Amino acid sequence: MHQTKTSSSFPTSPAIPLRVLHLAGSCVSEFYYNLSMIYAKEVVQLIGVSSHYAIVHPDGFWQLGISLDDLSEKISLQEMISQLPEIDVVVPHMFCFPGMTSFRAFFEDILGLPVVGSPSHCTALATNKAQTRSVVSASGVRVAKAQQLRQGNTLTMEPPFIVKPNSEDNSLGMSLVWNKNQIAEALQIGFEFDETLLVEDYIPGRELRVAVIEREGKLCVPQMIEYLFSEEHPIRTVRDKLELQSNGIPSKQPEKPAAKPMCPANVTAELCEKLADAAKKAHIALGCRDYSLYDFRVHAETNEPYLLEAGLFWSFGKISMISRMLQADGQSLEDVALELWSGAAGRTRIACGSLFKYVTMEGK
Fold first, then answer.
1. What DSSP state is assigned to residue 330?
2. Which of 122, 240, 260, 291 sits CB 3.0–4.6 Å from 118 for a disulfide?
3. What CA–CA distance (Å, rounded) separates 66 from 53?
4. Structure pTM?
5. CA 302, CA 191: separation in Å to the nearest integer?
6. How far is it, in rounded angstroms, from Cα 361 to Cα 203?
7. Which domains, from first to last, does the chain contain?
8. How confident is the model over 139-179, as pLDDT tens digits?
């Protein structure tokens, strides 16, 4: 049996720098490759941390380096494994489905390198919107009425509702349907991204984003973000999240999104408590680790929050949403990042060493 170290026993000393591998890119598409790189470029650079990068490309090849400006020639997966330096912890910056699931499992469960954030079985659950709804609602978190839909199924929902691909992110393939004349087009768009759709009652009202961070054994909720809508723009679309080039590839975050984020959100103590309680329940129910992020709609009439989906990602850059929440809370991004990275490294540092050595030797 492997011995496991606790985070409290991990030494943090300038003489022994924490060796961090930033995992970025995508083997799925140029869209997700660019999206990953937008955030990886912004990751906070910490004193006492030795940074390394492993970048996967849509063609399946890899690059390694000590910075994004100093990367190797493209190499195969086998070569990448054999050439990895000794690493204490992996910080993922991938947003495609394999990046959120399989790649985390490969580095943590196969190579034995601890990963910051939730384990792969948890992220696999959270990327499935329908399963996420079922799990959190069983723990008392309110969700809107919804129906899963596959090709050939009969739609029983009545507008207004949201149509969204079940395992897609960034609002890709999502539509707000106000009347029956819009249903066919919305379903067609959705099925271009996923074989399963989630059709969910539209909740009129406010939309807020809530984070949970594990610190010193407690679940902490920093300042929240609210997205400000207009009657003409009642939901967030992909262009509220990303600035797209003419070919549809993301280039950066939009400077002036139609749904403007406001942090800290202006919420009453009562609503803040409801949102924080729901987010913590979801964090526990989904089996999250280190941190988690959730989108809620707050009903305009009842003031009750409804969980829309979970986003188990944080790239630890100033442009990241959780980072903005911390800054609005007066907390240090650098301190929290170092705490979480060191804690993750301490979880399995002893167990990882021998397994990683074995894998790289076999690779050579």
1. T
2. 122
3. 6
4. 0.88
5. 33
6. 55
7. 12-117+336-363 (3.40.50.20), 128-142+203-330 (3.30.470.20), 146-201 (3.30.1490.20)
8. 999 999 999 999 999 999 999 999 999 988 777 889 999 99
